[in-house]
Amino acid sequence: MARSESALSRSALARLGFTGLSTGAEAIDDLSTTLGVEPADLIDGAVAADPDAAVARMLRIARRATSPLAELLADGRTRPIAWRVFGASNGLADFFLRHPHELSILAEVGSLVPSAPALSERMLAAVGAVDGVASSGDESAWVALRIAYRRAIAEIAAIDLCTPEPASRIAAISAALADAAGAALEASLAVARVRVSSAYPAEDVARTQLAIIGMGKAGARELNYVSDVDVIFVGGSVDEEALEEGRAIDIATRLARETIKGISGIEVEPPLWEVDANLRPEGKQGALVRSLGSHLAYYDRWAKSWEFQALLKARPIAGDEALGAAYLEAVQPKIWSSAAREDFVDSVQRMRERVTEHVDPEDAPFQLKLGIGGLRDIEFTVQLLQLVHGLTDETIRTRGTLESLDALVAGGYIGRADAATFAADYRTLRLMEHRAQLKDLTRTHLMPRTPEGQRELARATGLADTAEGIWSLWEQVRREVRDIHTRLFYRPLLSAVAALPEGERTLSTEQAHDRLAAIGFRDPAGALRHIGALTSGISRKVTIQRHLMPVMVRWFADGSDPDYGLLAFRRISERLGDTSWFLRMLRDSAGAAESLTMLLASSRYIGELLEGIPESVAWLDSTDRLRPRSPEKLDEEARAIQTRHASVTSALKAVRALRRRELLRTAMGGVLDVITIEEVAAALTSITEATIQAALRAVRREVVPPEDDAFEFAIIGMGRFGGAELGFGSDADILFVYDAADVAPERAQQFATQIVAGLREHLTDNRVPLDLDADLRPEGRSGPVVRSLGAYTEYYRRWSVSWEAQALLRARGVAGSEGLIARFMAMADSIRYPAEVDDQGVREIKRIKARVEGERLPQGADPHRHLKLGPGGLSDVEWLVQLIQLQHAHSVPALRTTSTFGALEASVAAGLMDETDAELLREAWRLASRLRSAITLQTGRTSDVLPWDRRELDALGRLLGYPERSASAVEEDYLGTTRRARRVFEQLFYG
Predict the structure, then answer these.
(1) DSSP element (H, E) containing 899
(2) In terms of CB atoms within 10 Å, which of 83, 582, 770, 817 comes out highest?
(3) Parallel, antiparallel, or unpaired: how do β-strands 772-773 and 732-739 relate?
(4) pLDDT for 694 beyond 60
(5) Range list of H helices, 672-718
(6) pLDDT, tens digit, 9 for 90 and up, residues 118-172
(7) Is 444 helix (H, G, I), strand (E, B) or coil?
């Protein structure tokens, strides 16, 4: 039976978490014998982080003083409290070993932590203080104070350890610990007054004011179990006629030193914690105590940004209440205006980075406080948001991290989800930190390094059951915290808000009209109406927009058309309604708000498309989403669209929407310099091809019956489309070709005509026109729109003129029957790459080029400003390249390309042109192409003429990356570039 009972006992111990079952059983038997309490009763309700250590600790105390511990463990209510305390804290066990009679506090534990007044009353009573003066100034008073403090800590710890969900009570526990620290300082100051009175007259000591300002966690009421208590001492005299300020400061300094000694000095009872006054003006080199006036003078003239950040949590915690309140009132305006200092945000960000850099690499994986994803990431993020937005919003001028998160959420400065994650992770990290410190009552911010220590922490926090579980949670929290910290702490909006001139932080109706006009709005009254519509109301959306608007208005003003930008933003905002991601992205994303204002204030083309596709604003959150999609992806989506729609009309409506969306993506990527001009051209070409291909598939299926499936139809890209060099607003030059195969010729011609008509009908898009321009077909506008392959072959071989062969140099199959395209291209190669070109043909090409320059320019247009037909413009470069291709492509295969730049490179490689000349031509072609697209982007309309208006030129310059007010530079660059290109053209083209 004895063996059975013993086995049952060990099984019970294992369930309670004992690891040394034999030694544990022996220790419980020993404790039972010593206290006179049955073993079964001893382990009833025994829940402890480390039950083996708990028994050992209780046994040490029992051997010294049996009665106090026996009373606790015999009582079913207090027994679980004792197990939890002794199982979690060797430091408190050592305290009770020194003072076993203090165990009575565990019998007095209730459900609520002691209040600040109650703690102060206890500490002052311990030193026999009356009117702020202790009954004794000898070391016994300090010993009594330290015992009273640790007794209070034991009570707070017991309440904390017995809480079912301790993370939920972190705020209350931390506040109680801060209140206990403040009470200890108050009591130590009472003892100091007695001691200092032996060196100074008692009446002078009484006239001396000393306020102790809590900083950091003490000021914010977020204190740990064991932490330095950061303080600032402020001194003064209650009556300067009776006690002049200088002498009062001397006395206050002695009082401060004695107060520190009472807390941190070596005595019979160990020190409580370090009183750290290094946050005072000038740090360790500065005076320990200063007058209020001296503090303010320092903050006005010499204080650095980090010192104001430190003052964010300042709170009087002991000493003269009136002086403490005066200090706090005086520094508040300085704290909340500090973010307006030059480079304030950058300095705070750099400070956080320096803290991380100085973490010992060996400690970094375990750092709960200072490391990546630790408490400092949360605290710095919250404080920076407060300091920047607290410039104008008093509702977020709070001290504690958790209450500040609530205020920031209410003010719309941080999203609810991010704030909830931050708050939960903050509580988790603080709980881990508390339990780690409680173990030995030592100042530590590290996760345990050993599996045994991690298991104990898991059980002490209740956050996990195993070492692996608590470590996994720690890594998860670190990732979450670092992710949110990186997004919020480095959001560009913070620097922009902090840098706003004082007069622009709020927009009052009285001053806004003139200010809007001054910064570039042409219709300030209209702008005010839009701002009012965006910021009126009480919804969360309006609240966030109210915070964003001062900065966004400034960004709109930096654009070329701020009035349109603001109007477009209002329309997009209204279209998106209360969509949560939109404003959250503008507020939290890295640069999304500034990018959106830049796009809207510089491009009507983008603004109008965004109004129709407002959800596309989400792309601004990631540059990857602004990159063009591959031709394969576009074709795949277009085919998927067609399978989902039964009718041609509905399918091609969706395809047109796909085209508009991808044009918008490309435009946004181009304006924001995510993609190059070459990538823009390739993307626009791919989008146009995918659209035409989808339309042809749909229309052909509707027009051509299954029995006539042998009928072939294809579309040949010509001009810039064939060269894959489209710009915004470019037409799609094409040829339509068919092959009747086994279908009757008349019936095939009818199919082809119907397909062309269907394509033009279904590709009509009034928002972003897609003009299928077939003017380069044989006989031009006089010839039939669509021909059979045989008709094309016969025409080109018998009647075509030189310019028609030249046009074929850009021919490229883009849609339809691959076999028909191959046959057409084989025919085209025989025409466009002749073995030799007769002199008459070359003269004809040169004659036509000269006639085009004279006849096709718009009436009254300045030739030098025409991007396409003007001297040195697109036409010059392309005609020269095409003449070289006609003359030499038969013998130089590399010239057989539809790409202008590709042909230029081949010409240089073949020795047909100098690299210097080729580069001048490239430069002119590229600049003219960029300006042509920029005009479409800026105005939403196509034009080939460089504008005269200086505002329009400046707007184009900004789209091309020029600085503000660069109208003359744009004009001079274009005219100079084309002038040089024209010289090359005339030399090589006309000879």
Answers:
(1) none
(2) 83
(3) parallel
(4) yes
(5) 677-703
(6) 999 999 999 999 999 999 999 999 999 999 999 999 999 999 999 999 999 999 9
(7) coil
**579: CB partners within 8 A, 6+ apart:** none
Strands (E), 305-426: 315-319
Partner residues linked to 786 by β-bridges:
736
Nearest CA among 338, 560, 440, 349 for reference residue 95: 440
**pLDDT value of position 1:** 32
pLDDT digits (tens, 9 = 90+) for 820-858: 999 999 999 999 999 888 888 889 999 999 888 878 888
Enclosing H/E stretch for 56: helix 51-64
Pinpoint the alpha helices (H) of 162-226: 170-196, 202-207, 216-220
The position carrying tokens 């703690």 is 119
Q: What are phi and psi of 285, to 5 degrees?
A: -80, -15
């274009």: which residue's tokens? 974
- Which residue do the tokens 């009908």 mark? 761
Higher pLDDT, 300 or 540: 300
User: E strand or H helix at 795, and its extent?
Assistant: helix 789-798
In terms of C-beta density within 10 A (0-12 exposed, 13-18 middle, 19 or more buried), how is residue 206 classed? Answer: middle
Residue written as token pair 């030995």 = 440
**291 φ/ψ angles, rounded to the nearest 5 degrees:** -75, 165
590, amino acid identity: A
C-alpha–C-alpha distance, residues 509 and 231, integer Å: 44
Phi/psi for 210 (5° steps) reads -140, 115
Evaluate whether 386 touches 404 at the Cβ level (below 8 Å).
yes
Phi and psi torsions of 228, nearest 5°? -60, 140
Spatial contact of 655 and 617, defined as CB atoms under 8 Å apart: no
3-state secondary structure of 17: coil
Tell me the one-letter amino acid at 130: V
CB 963 within 8 A of CB 946: no
Answer yes or no: are the C-beta atoms of 593 and 587 closer than 8 Å. Answer: yes
Q: How far apart are CA 651 and CA 641, in angstroms?
A: 6
3-state secondary structure of 529: helix
The distance of Cα 489 from the centroid of its chain, to the nearest Å, equals 8
pTM (global) more than 0.85: no
Cα distance between residue 391 and residue 337, in whole Å: 6
Contact 256, 289 (CB under 8 A): yes
Buried b (16+ CB within 10 A) or exposed e, 175-184: bbbbbbbbbb
Q: Which residues contact 253 (CB under 8 A, 6 or more apart)?
A: 233, 235, 287, 288, 289
DSSP assignment, residue 689?
Answer: H
Quickly list DSSP for 503-526.
Answer: GGSS--HHHHHHHHHHTT-S-HHH
DSSP label at residue 394? G
For 101, the token pair is: 């009679």
Buried b or exposed e, range 883-913, using 16+ CB within 10 angstroms: bbbbbbbbebeebbbbbbbbbbbbbbeeebb
> Do 767 and 609 form a contact (C-beta atoms < 8 A)?
yes
Average confidence score pLDDT of the chain: 92
**d(C-alpha 459, C-alpha 46), whole Å:** 13
Alpha-carbon span 481 to 478, nearest angstrom: 5
Task: List, in sequence order, every residue forming a beta bridge with 315; answer none if it has no partner.
Answer: 214
Q: What is the DSSP letter of 728?
A: T
Name beta bridge partners: 733.
Answer: 773
- In 390-441, which ranges are continuous DSSP H helix? 401-410, 416-440
Taking the C-alpha atoms of residue 905 and residue 862, their distance in angstroms, rounded to an integer, is: 31
Instruction: Pull the structure tokens for residue 734.
Output: 């094409």
Measured distance CA(839)–CA(848) in Å, rounded: 14
User: pLDDT tens, 301-328?
Assistant: 999 888 999 999 999 999 999 999 999 9
**Helix axes of 139-161 and 245-264: crossing angle, nearest 10 degrees:** 60
Phi, psi angles (nearest 5°) of residue 252: -60, -35
Beta strands 772-773 and 786-788, pairing class: unpaired
Residue 19 half-sphere exposure toward CB, CA atoms < 13 A: 11
CA separation for the pair 708, 988 (Å, rounded): 51
Give how far Cα 197 sits from Cα of 201, 208, 643, Å. Answer: 6, 11, 95
